[in-house]
Each structure stands twice: as structure tokens, then as C-alpha cells.
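The protein record passed on for reference:
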Amino acid sequence: MALKVVELFAGVGGFRIGLEGYPRRKDCNYEVIWSNQWEPSTKKQQASRIYKNRWPQAEHSVENIADVVENKWHTIPDHDLLVGGFPCQDYSVATSLKNSEGLIGKKGVLWWSIEAILRKKVNKPKYLLLENVDRLLKSPSKQRGRDFAVMLASLNNLGYAVEWRVINAAEYGMPQRRRRIFILAYHQDSGLYNRMVQTTEKENWLQTDGVFAHAFQIKTFNDNSYQGTLEEDLAAVSATFNLGGKASPFLNSGLMYKGTYVTNKSFPDYTGPRTTLGDILLEESLVPESFFIRDEDIHSPKGWKYLKGAKNEARYNKKLDFHYTYIEGGMVFPEALDNASRTIITKEGGKTPTRFKHVVQQGGRLRRLTPIELERLNMFPDNHTELNGVSATKRAFLMGNALVVGIIDRLGKILDQQIHQKTHTLHREDGL
């Protein structure tokens, strides 16, 4: 029987594609039974329109998940696996649970919607798979690691063990240098929880035995392992964790069980095939003329060449009546095609020259990336975001917010194997 999945902050369905495939794989052992996507301050809700277009029969909610959790959380069905790429926000605790009638954190902070679902469900999901930017491990700047500690303490109080890994997709052969933290959690009623907790040497789980270790192999850890404990009182964690510390105790690999965390720095161990930016480019004849850049936009005073170039120039802040020297390093221009792409961002679309948009050279001319190419950098199907009324600029925005589907594909397959204790069949020659 397929594992039932709830997909939160679904965007255009990156988690779903990674777990189920698109079209759905015959051997898929996951079924998304409910999803939610709601973008604040917009009426058109283009991501949800695309999601519904690709999965017309989906049980898909287009409401603020905080409102759903507060007013009709019972409409979220019981499920085995909860997934989502939730926003990175300030996770500080506003008040303790007993004094807040269920509201632990600040309103509008979407981590607390996840926490509330887990807390309210009698039949809690046995597994979580979450994604976020890697700065989560060291935020906020004035209390390094506090936000992640609050999350770990929350999950511990709800009966979950956790493992995490920061993964750069390009370091495992994928076409984009996109570094994100992925978080797996196992409820105490699951076999994976018991196997992790019973592992005598916890670093063995991180290096060889756990889901991340099988899906994304790493080299032997260095000697900088760190261990600590978390209080149960979330308000106390929020107020005191690593107070005065200059650096976060959380490194790019780690696990937490029964309030104790173990963390170390991992290094990728990958020798398989690699996809480059050049590999994903469309043929020149298929690129609309509007994506090619005019010479005057390249060489104008505020054009592409200037914005991408190195700077050491005098500037003046009129508001503060302040003269200063602005120094900035140059960027590769145009982009190197024999390596993975730089990280794509939400402002990738549009003709206006900027420093961070990608510019490639093709047929002797410079051009921007097309929506299809941006989809390929995240390993989505071609034209996944194509829909009447959705502009190329909006499609670029959606890809800037998306994840690399290939990471979820690998994690999903290994998680399924580990849950059902199947024989491990993914090998390095398969790109692992």
C-alpha cells in the first residue's frame, strides 16, 4: 500500500514530482492525498493554478495554511508522510503552550502550522521530510542556532527523532549549485525511529546507516563532532539556547533523539555523471528572440557588463549625506557552460539587466535563460509551469522558489526502502 502524503507549501509540486514522478511512476510507493499552496498578497495564486492544472483530481487547498490549521484542521486527512519547503522565518517562541491555548510561536510563522498539525493529530504522521535554506542552522544572527534548536525541541516534544543534512545538488551530479537543508523526522511509533535510537554509535547512522547516508554518500567525518541537549520548555530554548555564542553548534550533518543532538561536518563522496549548464540549454533555434540581449543593454552605463563586472568606485548616499568607496568583485560573464549553474533566484525573469540573472552565450550572442531551462535546472519536466496567463517572469519566480526535484527523488526511494527494509538497490553507477 502506498504511503499517504500531505504536501504543504506545495508551490508547483516539486515534492510531489520527486516522490511520485510525473507522469506517475508505476513502481511509485507514495500517494499525495492532500496539498496546500497559498501565496500571500496575490489574487491570482498562479502556483496553485499550475498545480491544479497538472493534477486536476488533486485534493488541493488554496488557503492560508495558518487559517486552515486554526479553524478546520480536521480537513487535513491522516497521512504517513508530511512534506514541505516551509519559509525561513523567525521561530522565536511567543509564549509557552500552557498559557497560549495551542499557540506556541508568533502568528504568521509557518513552522508553527506544521507543529500544530503534528500536535493536533491523534494519528500523527510517522515521517516528515522538510526543506529550507541552509542559514536555518545558524539563524538568527544574534543567537546562532536558536531557530533550529526550537524546531528540534518541538519535534522532540512531539515524539520524533530527527536527522538533517545540508545538500548542494551540484555536488551529487545535478545541474544547479543549490544548497539547502533537508530534514527527516521519524515518529517513535516507526521502525526507523527505533533503529536510529538503538544505533550505538550515532555517527554510524549519519555516515553509513541512515537515509541520507544511503541516498547521498559522504566521506568519513573529521574529529569535530559536537553533542548537546535541548530543554523541553520551548520558551526556555528560545530565550537561552547558545546565548552569547559566536557560532551555531549545528553543523551540516546531524541527528537528534530524546533531546540529545549529535552533529558533524560532512563532505560529499560522489564520482558519478554530472549535468552542466550547457547540457540543459535549448537549441538556439528554439529560443524566442526576446531572450537575446541587445548590444546597447550590454554596454550601457548600467548594463549587463557593468553590473556583472568588478567595481571600486566612489559613491554618495544622499539620504545620509555620506561619501564612501564601493568595492565589489566581478562575476563570470557570460556563465560557464561546462559546470553546474549558479543558484537561480526568484528575480531571474524579465529583461532588466541585473547582477544575478544568468546570461549565457549561444551562437555568438548573449541571452537570458528561458522558463524551460530554469525548469531543467530544478529537474522539473519541460513546460511544467506553462499555463495561460502565467508570464515568463512569473515562471522564473516560481522556479526561484522551487527545489531540485532530483534530491527528493533519491530521498524518496531510499526512505521507501528503509521503511520497508527492502534490499538497497541504488548504486553509484546509477548516479549515486
In short: The chain has two domains: 3-270+405-430, 278-401. The first strand starts at residue 3 and ends at 8. Confidence is low (pLDDT under 50) at residues 94-103, 424-432.
